[in-house]
């Protein structure tokens, strides 16, 4: 069941008034900035990503690859076939170039100030349709990243994304309620936020998102994906930004899932300004706290049983790939 959604509030008119934009962000925990990101930039990222997915046999060769209509799957984060393709997505210069573009930096500088910079950790979401069990549950980004609370995510669809195609939903004002405990769940990160009666008084907001929109939210803002009930894969990207001088954890300086080195990723790139750029920035590296993600034996058994039931419905005959993280483990680093 999906809670009734209130409509997103469009804050793009405040982009040239940073004080007003920050005041609204502080009130709501998010800002939707419509039509502010260069569509050619995002289109190139989509073309390169669908090219990778096509080469791995994920997409229907009889259809336009930009439509991203799957011919196989579903595959999910941590599984062998997913990781093989995702490694190649991580190697794409066009994917890593997005958060450095002036149109994106303008949005984030308005919220975080002139020293804002993106984490090198960059995330692509490759969401199959008709896979409701794996819809990303309500969660906060802080337990997954840690470091400073003033860490903002910038989520962008790589094509128009309706509610039916699985756009994001935000629990407005939830960033004011602190860090929620985590419970085991299927979905990205294998964890969900355990919400309490305070969260029940808040409204979920959402709506259709379009190519060029940026949805920015605080690390403590509770958010979730909606089920993808379309025929196409939902392709989106998200990047984390913070101010110079603030704390971060070592994992935020590594490629997503940590399977590749930066030298592996950078091979063949022609833009030197995108390589190791964070070494010229000021920040403090702090320890990662695994206790946020700890679950007991009973929760782990439930998670494993859920995964086994899901895999039985979606059998995958492929052999294991080194580094695969499913079946699930007790401790995870999303």
Present the secondary structure layout.
Layout: E1 6-7, H1 18-28, E2 30-33, H2 39-55, H3 80-90, H4 93-97, H5 102-112, E3 117-127, H6 142-145, E4 152-157, E5 168-171, E6 182-184, E7 191-193, H7 197-200, E8 204-206, E9 214-218, E10 223-225, E11 234-242, E12 247-249, H8 262-266, E13 284-286, H9 297-313
Parallel strand pairs: 1-8, 12-13
Antiparallel strand pairs: 2-9, 3-11, 4-9, 4-11, 5-8, 5-10, 6-7
Please sum up the structure shown.
By secondary structure, this protein is an alpha+beta fold.
Structure, described:
- This protein is of the alpha+beta class and 334 residues long.
- The chain has one domain: Jelly Rolls (Sandwich), CATH 2.60.120.
- It is built from nine helices and 13 strands.
- The radius of gyration is 19 Å and the shape is globular.
- The model has no long low-confidence stretch (mean pLDDT 93).
Number of strands: 13
Strand arrangement, major sheet: 2-9-4-11-3
The helix-strand sequence is EHEHHHHEHEEEEHEEEEEHEH
- CATH level 4 superfamily: q2cbj1_9rhob like domain
CATH architecture: Sandwich
Largest sheet: 5 strands, antiparallel
- The count of helical stretches stands at 9
Evaluate the radius of gyration. Answer: 19 Å
β-strand amount: 15-25%
- Shape assignment: globular
Number of domains: 1
Terminus-to-terminus distance: 26 Å
């Amino acid at each position: 069941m999906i809670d009734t959604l209130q409509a997103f509030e469009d804050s793009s008119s405040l982009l040239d008034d940073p004080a007003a934009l920050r005041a609204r962000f502080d009130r709501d925990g998010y800002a939707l900035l419509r039509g502010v990101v260069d569509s050619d930039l995002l289109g190139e990222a989509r073309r390169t990503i669908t090219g990778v997915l096509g080469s791995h046999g994920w997409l229907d060769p009889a259809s336009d690859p930009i439509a991203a209509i799957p011919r196989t799957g579903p595959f999910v984060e941590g599984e062998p076939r997913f990781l093989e393709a995702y490694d190649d997505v991580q190697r794409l210069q066009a994917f890593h170039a997005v958060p450095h573009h002036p149109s994106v930096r303008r949005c984030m500088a308005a919220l975080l100030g002139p020293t804002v910079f993106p984490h090198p950790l960059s995330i692509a979401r490759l969401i199959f349709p008709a896979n409701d069990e794996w819809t990303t549950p309500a969660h906060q980004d802080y337990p997954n990243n840690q470091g400073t609370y003033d860490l903002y995510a910038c989520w962008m669809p790589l094509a128009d994304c309706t509610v039916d195609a699985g756009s994001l939903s935000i629990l407005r004002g939830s960033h004011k309620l602190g860090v929620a405990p985590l419970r085991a769940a299927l979905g990205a990160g294998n964890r969900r936020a355990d919400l309490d009666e305070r969260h029940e008084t808040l409204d979920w907001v959402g709506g259709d998102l379009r190519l060029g929109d940026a949805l920015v939210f605080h690390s403590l803002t509770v958010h979730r994906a909606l089920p993808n009930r379309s025929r196409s894969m939902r392709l989106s990207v998200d990047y984390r930004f913070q101010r110079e001088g603030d704390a971060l954890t070592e994992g935020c300086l590594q490629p997503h899932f940590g399977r590749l080195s930066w030298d592996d990723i950078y091979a063949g790139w022609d833009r030197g300004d995108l390589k190791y750029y964070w070494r010229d920035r000021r920040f403090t590296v702090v320890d990662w706290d695994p206790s946020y993600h700890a679950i007991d034996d009973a929760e782990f058994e439930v998670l494993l049983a859920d995964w086994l039931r899901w895999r039985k419905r979606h059998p995958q005959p492929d052999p294991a790939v080194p580094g695969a993280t499913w079946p699930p483990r007790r401790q995870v680093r999303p």
